[in-house]
Amino acid sequence: MPRPGNSASFIVCHWLLAVSILFLFVSSWWMLSLPLPSDTIGFRVIPFQLHKNIGISLFMLILFMLFLRMRGREKAVANPALGVLERRLATLDHILLYGLIAACCLSGYLSSSFSGWSTQLWWLIDLPHWGGDDDELNILFSDIHLWSCWLLLAFMGLHIAAAMLHAFKGDGAVDAMFRISPQDK
Amino acid sequence: MAAETNQQLTRFNSGFAVVLMLFALLAAASHGNELLKQSVLLPAAEGISEADLDCREDELQEEGISLEECGLMLSSVRVALASSPDWYRSFQILNSSLGLALALASAGVAIRIYNNYEVRNFALLAFVGLIIVDLAGLLAAVNLGPLLRTQTLWPGIQWLVTHLCFLVALLAQESSPGQQASDEGSD
């Protein structure tokens, strides 16, 4: 009988995603308090590059996780302890969360592409600087980035609260991201 | 009776593991951010003066800040640097690196607790390590100038109390009747 749970690699991807998103939130609030850039002031250079690099990497990571799901190696197994409404809410929650993560990453990348600042992927590869310097588009995507990130934070709060609720009920709903498969032991 | 006690223990473990995982990730993010701060601030501040500030109107609008705030952003960096003794940066880099590693280790503890694996020594090492990191951070914060001390002391106390709570919860779980019954069953 299939049991709720994922491979160790999928679980690691999930927690890597979680810790990276928390880091992106806390570091972005701090980096926005740094002095604005000028010819001689460069406080924001490293934090912004790091922010963009983690964002791009996270987008790739969720594509990889989606690929694993599509290949069917990581099947979402319905927990019999959950009601129909709870299962539907869980599915909706996951679609919204992953959709919002993708929206945050894409809008951030697009905003950066029209900011006039170039991006180096992990200080190794110069990404094509195709957007140029377009203030209107930069502000538009920056606003989308801001609001999608606030929404993401709100849904993460709900996601965490729901996980806590199920964990304290002990109904096994959080097994998927905590329970290690017997073959992984 | 024994089945009920085991069920209670499983519930305690799953709740404890999820709360622990949340705080482990928050601590990891916090220590990661501290590492970033220490890597950036001092090197980027060398030779900078107010004259270098570039508070253009379009930039201010884009950032949603006033001209005064733009000037104070540099002052804020100066506050952090002026309140830091010479040893503080290298200390924070070391302490935050340790904190980051131990926070990630406590995430591993959370997974092990959820799966009811033997976790005692690993968990004790992670929690006591985190408490030492918090205490060292507090001791450092006490010796900072007042402008930076006020920003670092209270979060430091909150983390210390949080990690003490986890240590106490671990010890309480170990001495619970359910755990003792489980240990006897596995002997």
User: Number of DSSP strands of chain B?
Assistant: 0
Count of helical stretches of chain B:
7
Strand content of chain B: under 5%
**What Rg of chain A is obtained from the alpha carbons, in whole angstroms?**
19 Å
SSE class of chain B: mainly alpha
Describe what you observe in this structure.
- The complex is a heterodimer of chains A (185) and B (187).
- Chain A has 185 residues and is mainly α.
- Chain A contains five helices and two strands, in the order αααββαα.
- With 187 residues, chain B is mainly alpha-helical.
- Chain B is 83% helix and 0% strand.
- Chain B is built from seven helices and no strands.
- Chain B is elongated and about 75 Å long.
- The model of chain B has no long low-confidence stretch (mean pLDDT 86).
- Classes of the chains: A mainly alpha (185), B mainly alpha (187).
- The A-B interface holds A 11, 15, 18-19, 22-23, 25-27, 30, 32-43, 45-47, 50, 135, 138-139, 142, 160, 163-164, 167-170, 174, 178-180 and B 7, 10-11, 14-15, 17-19, 21-22, 25-26, 28-30, 32-33, 36-37, 39-41, 44-45, 47-48, 52-55, 58-59, 62-63, 70, 73-74, 76-77, 104, 107, 110-111, 114-115.
Keywords:
heterodimer; A: 185 residues; mainly alpha; two-stranded antiparallel sheet; 2% strand; elongated; B: 187 residues; 7 helices; 0% strand
Give the helices and strands, then pairings.
The complex is a heterodimer of chains A (185) and B (187).
Chain A: H1 8-31, H2 45-70, H3 84-113, E1 120-121, E2 125-126, H4 135-169, H5 175-178
Antiparallel strand pairs in A: 1-2
Helix pairs in contact in A: 1-2, 2-3, 3-4
Chain B: H1 2-45, H2 57-63, H3 67-82, H4 88-114, H5 120-142, H6 146-174, H7 177-186
Helix pairs in contact in B: 1-4, 1-6, 1-7, 4-5, 5-6
Task: Summarize the entry for a quick read.
Chain A is mostly helical and 185 residues long. Chain A has five helices and two strands; from the N terminus they run H-H-H-E-E-H-H.
